[in-house]
Amino acid sequence: MLNKMWKILFLLFLISCADDTITNSGTEINPENLNIMTWNIESFPKTNQTIGYVTQIINSLDVDIIALQEITNQSSLIELANSLNGNWDYSFYSNDSWGLAYLINTDNISVTQNPYSILQQYDYEFAGRPPYVLEFNYNNQEIILMNIHFKCCDGSEQRRADASYYLDDYIYNNLYSDNVIVLGDFNDSLIDDENVFDVFLNKPQEYTFADYPMAQQNNEWAYWSFPTWPSHIDHILISNELFDEYQNEESICNTLLVDQNFSNYASYDDNVSDHRPVIISLKIN
What we know:
This protein has a single domain (33-282), classed as Endonuclease/exonuclease/phosphatase (Deoxyribonuclease I, Chain A). The protein contains 9 helices and 12 strands. It has helices spanning 2-17, 50-59, 74-83, 157-174, 198-201, 212-215, 220-223, 243-247, 265-271; strands at residues 34-44, 65-71, 88-93, 99-105, 110-117, 132-138, 141-149, 179-185, 207-209, 234-239, 252-255, 278-282.
């Protein structure tokens, strides 16, 4: 009886704050664009309030696809998908305790092939989390997403560099003329000497990190995806086939400061994640 009453009270709390508390934190997202977000949603769900908070955050955004990292509970992912406004599907892959997943707004997105993992032969380099691929159609354009979560921490730089090398090699040999977006928790900065992402950074005619302007900023609390380290380690990499769309004045790539909806960052960290989401909004003609 007490458990049922608690659930009712919590639901009333969510309803009362849904319109007033959670916003898109000042980032203007054009609903007519293709809007794709990456979010390491740490050990999802962290608490019994996480699904409610995440639902409010996503519902405040005009987003079409969300690439998620660190999903620990598939049934909670399903509950989240079912709680969102509109018609959402999900897909999930786990080879260890931290799974990769997609949430897909099927009102706007047509999935053309069931999601699949690649480069499983390099399990060590990818820390047991090989890239998880989603192929879809938007506005008559075929686009390929690769959701990644590289190995973390100092001492693992070579594994991240090797994973980047194998990913570039796969794209070159299999997706050379395709619209490709690689996004997720890359677990390293874009700006330092002997960068682990040099295989991409040294090919500016072929790739660009759409979030690079965020990484160049010095105010971590205003721009970075992992401000408590502080660092900006969640990235969105696009192939040259999407350069024109990215350079359109109506396209943006920003870190979403969703933690500003909470009393402080610690409250956001305790209930949602230690990472902020990063979004790309592309004008697709």
